[in-house]
Fold this sequence. Notes:
With 573 residues, this protein is mostly helical. 65% of the residues lie in helices and 2% in strands. The radius of gyration is 31 Å and the shape is globular. The N and C termini lie far apart (87 Å).
Amino acid sequence: MLRQFAIRGLPDTADLRRSVAFAFVAVVLAVSAGALVGLAPPYGFVAAFVGVSAIWLVALGARVERLFVVAVGVLFLGYAFFGRGLAYRGVPPVYVGEMVLALGAIASISALRIRRLHVLHLLIAAFMAWGAIRTVPFVGTYQIDAFRDGVVWGYALFAIAVSLTVRRSDIDSLLGAIERILPFYILWAPIAVLFSISAGSPDPGSVPVLFVKTGDTGVNLAAAGALVIVGLSTMMTGARETLFWLPWLGTTALVGAVNRASMLAAMCAGVAFLFVRSSIRWIRVVLISAVLIGAIGLINPEVNLGIERRLSFQQLATNLMSVVVPQNDPIVDGTKEWRLRWWDTIFKYTLEGPYFWTGKGFGINLADDDGFQVLESGALREPHNGHIAILARAGVPGLALWVLLQGGYAVSLLRAAWIARRNGQTVWVQVFGVLVVYWLASMTNMSFDVYLEGPQGGIPFWSSIGLGLASIKLAEDDRRAGRKAQWPDPSSMQPRSASVQPIAMLSSRPGPAVPLIRPSHAAAQSAGPETEAPSAPKKRPARTRRPGEKADSAKRRKQSKPRRPPSAAEDAG
């Protein structure tokens, strides 16, 4: 009895290893903090506070994961609405994005013990490791600038943390929140862009609360358009959809007149049609866009934005054509030639020069060192192309890891979408379609602008990759469990209440698709395949009688009826 009690009371092996590792880390942090207090008291107390906070957060376990997921969702929406205005809130050099990143690192430690890793996790880790190798040697020379440039690979931790902590319910909540916020954002975006254009280009220390970049807005417009095209936003139907595309096209024209990268990024929303089977969706969106664009072309308005470029149909056409054909515009062609010359210089000293294997490292100002600085303050540091910037700083090995990572992610998303469509997982096809559009729009924008190097661009980009990895895993789990994501045809969808979540059907058993989930059945649907809503008893169908069967039955009943015992009078007679 005692032996049985002792064996039953022993802790699990995995929990024991986790407890030992936790105690070891706590001891190491305590000793390090004590040493720092003796050598440098201010930094030691700060390190001790951070260490104690980290240990406390790790001890919270799954609650830290929930806190991190909520923080990333709020940060994502905040960057969409306020851009750099939110990115530069904090105590320099630690801003709100870095705070959430630290929370994500702790949440990853808590979630790693119960999550299986994807091959892309290894590529992300390899990319981060090589970036760290090309950053650490330059910390002593460039100090904070080395960490500042290193966010290109440092923010990749968001991809790992999000992929390990997101659950299906989190995707439900995110889609529900986006659906409710989408009408407000599509009306807010042009106001934010106009305000930011009037504010000019502020220094990092004087960024106003509201300041969005046109390129970042183009990426968000692509995602918003994809949500409506694939049908995940059921509020945008009929007349509401027409009202949605009107400000969408207007904002796209506004950011496209200022920056050609933002216009190309917003146009990536059209890729979402590849994930839609309904021809009605195609016809409706194409007709609305053709009518609005035709009206703008006939009216040909010209608005002075207070900058070198004007908002006009001619300016939009010039910006779009300048991507492939030189234009007789000194402003448009001048910036294009400046970029091409800088990129060619980087190609020469990496692919054909001494920085083939190592690059110049993270920390050095590439604009100053390469001779392409155009700002008196020296604030320009990157060559307006995230891919080429990685080549310049991390060499060919860094670029190779970057290409493998992004190519593998794109292929994984497309493969998951194809498998989901083959297995009838309609909702997952729509989710993968939006993720593909967001990834493609981000890659397009970072090819012409500084996007990956800033928190308002890099954090949402890496977080979307983490969301994609989590979605791939969840869709695979549903397929193995035999659950199918059903969703009505986008052309027949009606707005649903806020209490109904789009992927709530993922937890139901395979069966015929229903147009909407009633709120009264939401608990039964979310309970999983083990519990189902009680169904009404089925009535047995009435059997049709053959001719003559009724009379025969009556005769048989009469014959089988028990006879009444005779009375006393009858016996006497």
